Amino acid sequence: MSIAFSATTAFAPAAQAATDAFYTYRGATPLGTLAPGTVLDTRTLAYHVVGIPTPVTAVQLLYRTTDAQMNPVANVTSILIPPGADPSKAVAYQSYYDSLSPEHSPSRAIAGDLSLGSSVMSSESPFVADLLVNGYTVVVADTEGQQANFAAGPEYGMNTLDSLRAATSSATTGLDADTRIGMVGYSGGAIATYWAAALAPEYAPDVNARLVGATSGGLLVNPAHNLRYVSGSLGWSGVAAMAILGISRSYDIDFTSYLSPYGAALVSKLHAASIADVLFQYPGLTWQQLVRPEYADPNSVAPLVEKVDQVNLGYAPTPTIPLYLAQGAHGDLEGSNGSNPTVGRGDGVMIAGDVRSLARQYCATGNRQVEYHEYSDLSHIPTLGVWGLGMTAWINDRFAGVPAGSNCDAIAPGNPLTSDL
Predict the structure, then answer these.
(1) Residue 66: phi, psi to the nearest 5?
(2) Cα dist. 344→34, 241, 398, 416 in Å?
(3) Reading across the β-sheet that carries 370-375, which strands appear in turn?
(4) Residue burial 104-133, b: 16+ Cβ < 10 Å; e: rest
(5) 90 DSSP β-pair partners
(6) For 355-384, how does the pLDDT look when each residue is reduced to its tens digit (9 = 90+)?
(7) Buried b vs exposed e over 237-246: b needs ≥16 C-beta within 10 Å?
(8) Which side of the chain, N or C, has fewer Cβ within a 10 Å radius?
């Protein structure tokens, strides 16, 4: 028995809100002729948490940026302005809203939309509130763009950097070209944060000159390793199907011919899924179940091998700013086996050995302002809490001019960062 489905429907993003024209660029000037970060449209509303308006003003900007294939596109960012905000400093907060639907983007949650996917952004409100209380204007980009290009790290980074260009050039935000900026984000937000830090010196040197540092936890480095690590996991195995969809969408690849009937049905089902729809929902799911028998070795799927290299953070440039990385290493608590000798221990979805290697690589290639902390007794979700407790204090120190810490010489060796599947 086979299951037929259209690649255009299974791999396409869910339709964005048809009634909200704000998300669509309607100008006469071709996007490609506009500079990245150009503001295309503006609106002001209240910052909502679980659909409830707060006293914090949210300015939302439609702006020009660049997608994974280097095409000019429009995206949305939200600038949260607390009462008495200090315009000399801002923090880019990258959400971990991991989703295959643009309906789940932070801007929609901030505007008051309610859905299971958008509730992820609301769950991050304590971290955002901590920054707001400390007087920071907080910039929250839809890091996956308006096609929800899940796991396309370079696009996350460019969306983030161009959102900062837009936020500091708009007269409605109070920010300007002299505003200094910190960057924070966990998990999916860490992908955006570290790709932004890596791409900034070349893609956005104007932004890089104003960055004071970046702190993140639960970082995806080498997706090839992560696909192997989560295969068969009780909690995180469904992420593999999301990754197939995300890579196919970001780079216009049709994986239809590689999928098993079960894999095809699952991919079709998840085409607009949020991380909330897959976490602990597909216990024991393996790569081999998703593909036809002849593709049981992921290295036999040529398009995947090619594109995984492009989203491997280990192949990206070294950031020039102070960095703090937190990583759990007890993923067995979330159902991921850490005994695989090719990847080792992780937090359930992210791999400690990969993050250690990345930190050591940064230290060896010119950035000694790297602080890495590994929590051997914590998995992905608890490590979020530990990282979040110190996030604002670390950022405060960077703005205050306190020298950043470094433990480059104490970081243990990790995994090779080559993208072998």
Answers:
(1) -135, 135
(2) 46, 22, 33, 12
(3) 39-49, 52-66, 72-81, 137-141, 89-94, 180-186, 211-217, 323-328, 370-375
(4) bbbbbbbbbbebebbbbbbbbbebbbbbbe
(5) 137, 181
(6) 999 999 999 999 999 999 999 999 999 999
(7) bbbbbbbbbb
(8) N
